[in-house]
UniProtKB/TrEMBL annotation:
<keyword id="KW-0689">Ribosomal protein</keyword>
<dbReference type="InterPro" id="IPR002143">
    <property type="entry name" value="Ribosomal_uL1"/>
</dbReference>
<comment type="subunit">
    <text>Part of the 50S ribosomal subunit.</text>
</comment>
<keyword id="KW-0678">Repressor</keyword>
<keyword id="KW-0694">RNA-binding</keyword>
<keyword id="KW-0810">Translation regulation</keyword>
<dbReference type="GO" id="GO:0006417">
    <property type="term" value="P:regulation of translation"/>
</dbReference>
<comment type="function">
    <text>Protein L1 is also a translational repressor protein, it controls the translation of the L11 operon by binding to its mRNA.</text>
</comment>
<keyword id="KW-0687">Ribonucleoprotein</keyword>
<keyword id="KW-0699">rRNA-binding</keyword>
<dbReference type="GO" id="GO:0019843">
    <property type="term" value="F:rRNA binding"/>
</dbReference>
<keyword id="KW-0820">tRNA-binding</keyword>
<dbReference type="InterPro" id="IPR028364">
    <property type="entry name" value="Ribosomal_uL1/biogenesis"/>
</dbReference>
<dbReference type="GO" id="GO:0003735">
    <property type="term" value="F:structural constituent of ribosome"/>
</dbReference>
<dbReference type="GO" id="GO:0015934">
    <property type="term" value="C:large ribosomal subunit"/>
</dbReference>
<comment type="similarity">
    <text>Belongs to the universal ribosomal protein uL1 family.</text>
</comment>
<dbReference type="InterPro" id="IPR005878">
    <property type="entry name" value="Ribosom_uL1_bac-type"/>
</dbReference>
Length: 237
């Protein structure tokens, strides 16, 4: 087991591991115990009562965080014709068709965070799915990244403004960034509420028993703060 440094241990000492905190208390502790020299990311980790072995119980959806994540999101759009310029005008970092597909395929170009595509491009984009898929960059209707040309501008604005895609891992846990340590407590609280609402709305019909089993809030490099799952689901900042 790796040994933790003095700063981590000092931060951990401020957390009572025997209790469950309210979301407001936990967010305050996350800010207090963040010792990174950079503006650390605040993350929520939720263990769900789902069986990831069953496709109908896996969760993949999006949430529009009111205050974004604090991260600059680079958007690439697969489109053709007038839709290319429309995407660039809406704020896309890259937009194109065959040229971008070839760049990704031949040059392993992945200098972007989210890929959006119009439906008419998916036949071509599918040819580089083996490269986009493992990196979580393949446009998908479940994540709202396959949209008609008329909806490109709105979708680009949402993605750049704080729309986050999340999915459970193979153990049934969600890991979602909800902001930065530099955010105000109110901003973090409102982003957290938006996430919890999205998670509750995405509950699979096949999930049995307790759906949200544990909730933990943490910062990059910082210790986790256990949150009362019941309080997390009813929290209003």
């Amino acid at each position: 087991m790796p040994k933790h440094g003095k700063k981590y241990l000092a931060a951990l000492a401020k957390i009572d591991r025997s209790r469950l905190y309210t979301p407001a208390e936990a967010l305050a502790l996350v800010k207090e115990t963040s010792y990174a020299k950079f503006d650390a990311t605040v993350e929520a980790h939720l263990r769900l009562g789902i069986d990831p072995r069953h496709a109908d119980q896996n969760i993949r959806t999006t949430v529009a965080l009111p205050h974004g994540t604090g991260k600059t999101v680079r958007v690439l759009v697969f489109a053709q014709g007038e839709a290319v310029q429309a995407a660039l005008d809406a704020g896309a970092d890259y937009a194109g068709g065959d040229d971008l597909i070839a760049k990704i395929d031949r040059e392993n170009f992945f200098d972007f965070d989210v890929a959006i595509a119009t439906p008419d491009m998916m036949g071509k984009v599918g040819r580089i799915g083996r490269k986009l898929g493992p990196r979580g960059l393949m446009p998908n209707p479940k994540s709202g990244t396959i949209v008609p040309a008329a909806d490109l501008a709105r979708t680009i604005r949402e993605v750049k403004g704080g729309r986050v895609e999340f999915r459970n891992d193979k153990t049934g846990i969600l890991h979602v960034a909800i902001g930065k340590v530099s955010f105000t407590p109110q901003q973090l609280a409102e982003n957290f509420v938006a996430l919890m609402d999205a998670v509750k709305a995405a509950k699979p019909s096949g999930a049995k028993g307790t759906y949200i089993r544990t909730v933990t809030l943490t910062s990059t490099m910082g210790p986790g703060v256990p949150v009362d799952p019941a309080a997390a689901q009813t929290f209003k900042p």
